[in-house]
Structure formats: C-alpha cells, structure tokens
Design brief:
The protein is an alpha+beta fold and about 180 residues long. It has four helices and ten strands; from the N terminus they run H-E-E-E-E-E-H-H-E-E-E-E-E-H.
C-alpha cells in the first residue's frame, strides 16, 4: 500500500467510528485502532480489542503495511455502546518522535516503549517515565517487574516501533509505583 493511500485512509478515519485494521511490517497479526490523529510519520490510535479500549499507541506510518476499515456488527455495537464517548484525545504532537515524547513528558504518564521486530533480533520492551526527549533518542527512567527503578536508558528513535500509554497495564503500575494503593 502506498504512503499516500495509507495517509488518506488514516485521515478519513480520524475522529470517527471507523475501526481500522492495521497491519505492520514486523507482525503477521493485525491490530485494531480508532485513529485519533496522525502526521506524515506517526499515527496515534486507541487500541480496541473485543469491545474494550485499552490505551493509546503511537506507531510509525513507515511500518504500516496496510490499513483496512472494518465494517461489521462489532463496529456497530461499539458505536451503539458509545465506546469512544469518554475518550479524550491526548494532546500529542505527532510531527516526530522527539515532539511526541516532548508532549508526553508533562503528562507524567508511564509509557511502554517497544521494538517489536523479533525476527530481526531487535526486540525490546521498556516501561517507565520519559526523562528527556533528544534529537535522535529519548531517555527513559525504567523499572523492573519487582517495581525497582533502574538506571536511565537512552533509546534511539530508529529502534522504536511503538509507544503505549494510558493502558490498563501501565496505569496499574503507575498507581503502584506512586504508592496510591496499599499492597500490605
């Protein structure tokens, strides 16, 4: 699929109940997104899975192989139930990874930064907070599965396939890490 066609589909689906089936170059499976915004390089969507929304994702348009509009009963149910009714589009500048991370920084949300290129041996998963967006990389303060903060890491933008935030997993960790729930 040519870039212009992908951008046109993203543009037409933005802010609608058009559920997009997105195929990415590094995954044989597809993902469902309601598109909230895009630039020529990045897209912002809210992931849909079986009538549930689970967080926001930013992904590279260059990794998007194909985008299809899903039109079936599930979409009608989502619309009838007002699935997008309370979704507030986060104010993220999608011009570049640097501007996207600069927009996420003041939100103070935990982010999941990934490279999903498993076959290429480049895969990684990092959860933590944005510390400093730079010109070609971002500094993240990560933590491990036991809730221990680790040394800051610098991730080149060229290695990132997706950034997730506002999802159930990272939001739960954020509550725990900020001490808002008593685990005793």
């Amino acid at each position: 699929m040519k870039k212009a066609e992908k951008l046109n589909r993203l543009h037409n689906a933005t802010g609608t109940y058009d559920l997009c089936r997105c195929y990415f170059s590094y995954d044989e499976n597809y993902w469902y997104f309601y598109v909230l915004g895009h630039s020529d390089t990045l897209m912002l969507g809210v992931e849909e899975d079986d009538f549930i929304l689970d967080g926001f994702q930013i992904r590279k348009i260059s990794d998007l192989k194909k985008i299809e509009i899903k039109d079936d009963l599930c979409v009608k149910i989502n619309e009838k139930n007002g699935l997008l009714r309370n979704v507030e589009k986060p104010d993220v500048n999608l011009s570049s990874w640097q501007s996207a991370f600069a927009s996420l920084l003041p939100l103070g949300r935990f982010v999941i930064v990934q490279n999903e290129k498993f076959e290429a041996g480049e895969a990684f998963y990092c959860i933590g907070t944005v510390k400093k967006p730079k010109k070609t990389s971002v500094v993240i303060a990560p933590f491990d599965a036991d809730g221990n903060w680790l040394e800051d890491i610098e991730i080149p933008y060229s290695k990132i396939t997706s950034v997730t935030f506002g999802d159930r997993y990272s939001e739960t960790w954020q509550k725990y890490m900020e001490g808002t729930i008593d685990l005793s």
